[in-house]
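Q: Structure tokens for this one, please.
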Amino acid sequence: MARRSWSTCLSYPILSPAREARDVKSGKPEAAFVLLLLQSVVWMITGISAAPFALAGEVHMAGLAVSTMLLALGTLLCAIGVLWRRSWARGVVIALEVVCLFGTAALFLAPIGFNHGLVSILVNAALPLAVIVLLPKDQEAFS
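A: Here is the predicted structure, written as tokens:
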């Protein structure tokens, strides 16, 4: 009976050389992690910036601040799941980014004073689209 040799790659054990070669070959989940981390930080800053309005008397802004920060926390946890190549994280992240794209399209088309600047388009449309493109479509990369 042959012994399995344990090696470590990205701080978790790998049982087979084929899996190790596959994990080292693709860096797309790592790039998606960085973009999700950026998105999470943007949402966290948005939630923190809503907190002073709650202190100034607009109490509904406290709920918006808390919900935005919880969304940022959920995005961070999903980003960690993508980095660890969990299949559930891939599905949740794709669903989240599709909802973000639909929300951006609705805000872009509705005449309610949405910012149509370059930064807004990059953060609200290009970043979710890039995350969807970067996540691998094959199930082998996610166990």
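A few notes: The chain has a mean pLDDT of 84. Helices lie at 17-25, 28-55, 60-83, 87-109, 118-134.
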